[in-house]
């Protein structure tokens, strides 16, 4: 190889290195297919992972053609009672966003149906809570009335005991009065007898002398 060939070889090698570096810099890591991951998790019943994957998909410039499906599945992942991320309020927000953003979507009728059912459930839950509050109030009133009745019954028993005691005292007083009346009658009889004895024991009174 002659001396003139060396500079050319160096230039070629340098261009090759620069090109390789440029291609390496332009090479990008492919974005994960979050939608396919979410669908797989959803079919497997792992709604928590599915919800995270759907959220990731929707935050990475989702395709409009399947964005409505992703929103609908995300709402279901939050709506299912067995889901670890069960959150009806969040599901309702997502469904409202779906029917507002994609009113012509094939998922819109189902979304409207679910929203209507969820509204009915919320109204029924509010009604049940209202009735439970009313039942609790009535139970408190019954408890208070029972307490008051118990207090009144205790007071009535105490009054009956007082009445029985007073009756006994009255009977005792009546018996004592009868005994004293009998004793008084005996004393009066004794006094009358003493008077008769005294009269009988007196000397006869002399007749009065005739007046001249």
Write up this protein:
The chain has a domain at 34-106: Serine Threonine Protein Phosphatase 5, Tetratricopeptide repeat (Alpha Horseshoe). Helices cover 80% and strands 0% of the residues. It is built from 6 helices and no strands. It has helices at residues 5-26, 34-44, 47-58, 64-79, 88-101, 108-201.
Task: Show the helix and strand layout.
Layout: H1 5-26, H2 34-44, H3 47-58, H4 64-79, H5 88-101, H6 108-201
Helix pairs in contact: 2-3, 3-4, 4-5, 5-6
What are the key terms here?
single chain, 212 residues, mainly alpha, Serine Threonine Protein Phosphatase 5, Tetratricopeptide repeat, 6 helices
Radius of gyration: 57 Å
Q: Kindly state the percentage of residues in helix.
A: over 70%
CATH architecture of the domain at 34-106: Alpha Horseshoe
Distance between the termini: 219 Å
Order of helices and strands: HHHHHH
What is the beta-strand fraction?
A: under 5%
Overall mean pLDDT score?
85
* Oligomer type: single chain
- Count all strands and give the number: 0
**Tally of DSSP helical segments:** 6
Give the CATH class of the domain at 34-106: Mainly Alpha
Structural class: mainly alpha
Poorly predicted runs of 5 or more residues: 21-30
**What does the overall shape look like?**
rod-shaped
Predict the CATH topology of the domain at 34-106: Serine Threonine Protein Phosphatase 5, Tetratricopeptide repeat
The largest sheet is: none
């Amino acid at each position: 190889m002659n001396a003139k060939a060396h500079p050319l070889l160096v230039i070629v090698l340098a261009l090759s290195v620069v090109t390789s570096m440029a291609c390496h810099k332009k090479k990008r890591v492919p974005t994960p297919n979050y939608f396919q991951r979410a669908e797989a998790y959803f079919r497997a019943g792992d709604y928590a992972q599915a919800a995270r994957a759907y959220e990731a998909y929707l935050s990475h410039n989702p395709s409009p053609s399947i964005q409505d499906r992703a929103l609908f599945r995300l709402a279901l992942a939050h709506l299912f009672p067995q889901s670890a991320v069960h959150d009806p309020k969040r599901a309702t927000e997502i469904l409202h966003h779906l029917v507002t953003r994609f009113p012509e979507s094939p998922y819109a009728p189902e979304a409207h149906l679910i929203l209507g059912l969820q509204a009915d459930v919320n109204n029924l839950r509010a009604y049940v809570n209202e009735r439970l509050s009313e039942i609790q109030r009535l139970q408190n009133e019954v408890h208070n009335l029972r307490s008051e009745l118990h207090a009144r019954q205790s007071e009535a028993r105490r009054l009956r005991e007082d009445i029985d005691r007073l009756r006994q005292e009255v009977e005792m007083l009546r018996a004592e009065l009868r005994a004293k009346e009998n004793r008084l009658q005996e004393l009066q009889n004794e006094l009358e007898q003493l008077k008769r004895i005294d009269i009988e024991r007196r000397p006869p009174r002399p007749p009065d002398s005739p007046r001249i």
